[in-house]
Structures are given as structure tokens and as C-alpha cells.
Input
Amino acid sequence: MSTGPRLDVTGDGDGGRRDLSGDRAHAGELELVDRVEPRPVVSREVGFHGRVWDVVSEVVDLGAAGRVTRDYIDHPGAVAVVALDDAGRIALVHQYRHPIGTVEWEIPAGLTDVDGEPLVLTAQRELAEETDLRADTWHHLLEVATTPGSSSERITIFLARDLHVVPEAERHTREGEELDMPLAWFPLDEVRDAALAGRIRNMTLIAGVLAACAARDAGWSTLRSATP
Output
């Protein structure tokens, strides 16, 4: 162990550490919650029309900071589902994602592309279409802004429990990329450990699994009811 002099990085002169809690904002002055406060948009142009989303360029008035131009993906949003069975296993699908050239493990998910459809109903539909499963118990788990510096996408993640299989006559006919999308079950803790070890990388899956582990460890007391 070094016995040399300590480097004073705090500016207090004695090599110790000072309380930094008041350097930016005092406790209680700022609430720990995101504020939805859109700034005025001076102009807007669509630079690219896509099949699912557009790329837009907007001039935004930031007040004292002046006007800035921001290019971003105008995304419809999505839902995703952490589906847990009675044994504490999570349902995952295996899907190829071309932008990253990877076959990923993911939780069931889909776009919020039906006007006026409540998010929980979209989640229920996507779960049935991708996994042939329904759930009797639904809760909000969390909402994430995936890449707020470049996309407007928000994903609402639900927890689905008390699962049962969709009758064969009522099952969705999968087409296209969904044809080669196998379903598998893994213990929730195993998926958490795989994420922390860097073996899986899908953001929605990792956020949902970590949130589900936290909610479970709190006795599910943090969950919010999800009703249409």
C-alpha cells in the first residue's frame, strides 16, 4: 500500500473529500421525474419517408440557447412483453435483426401502429401473434425512450403472468420473418446473468428482465395495473 501524499482532487486543501451534493442543485429543488415540455418547432421537413418511420429535420427554438436544427427518426412507438410462467421462466423469441447482423434473443414486441388502440391491447395482440400465448394478469413494468438523441421511439414494457395457450383454431398465421422465429423458455435469473455477462444485447429484453427481477425481489409491490 502506498504511503505517499494523497492527491488533492477536491480543492479543499487537505487531501480529503468534500460534500459535492450542493455543487449543482440542492436536494428537493429538482424532482426526479422526466418533464414532458416540448420546445416550439419553427419549421419541419421530412427528408425520408420510410415504410415504418420517417427521418425528419426540425428547427427548434430553445429560448435563451437559440435555435438549433435536429434530425431524428419519427417513430410510432412500440410495446413489449415480459411473459413469465408459473415456474419463473420468461418466454423469448429468436429473431434476425439486419441492421446489426445478429440473430437476437428478444421478448415479444411490436409497433403501436393501430390508431387509438390501448397499449395493453397492443401488447396482448403481439404476445398472442408471436408466441401463441395469452395472459390473465397484466401490469405495467416500465417505459423506455430507446435513443432520445436520434429517435422519438418509446417502448412500453408490460409484465404478463397467468399464461395459457391460444387454441389452435384461433392462432395467428405467421408470415415473413416471423416464420423463422422460434420460441424458448429460460429462467428469469439466467437471462439476467446472460445480459450482465454480455452474451445478449437487446436493449428491450435487458431493460424488461432487470425491471422484472427488481419487481420480483420487491414482492411485486412496485407494479402498476394495466387495464385497457
Helices lie at 119-131, 188-196, 203-217. The mean pLDDT is 89. The radius of gyration is 23 Å. Residues 215 and 222 are 6 Å apart (CA to CA).
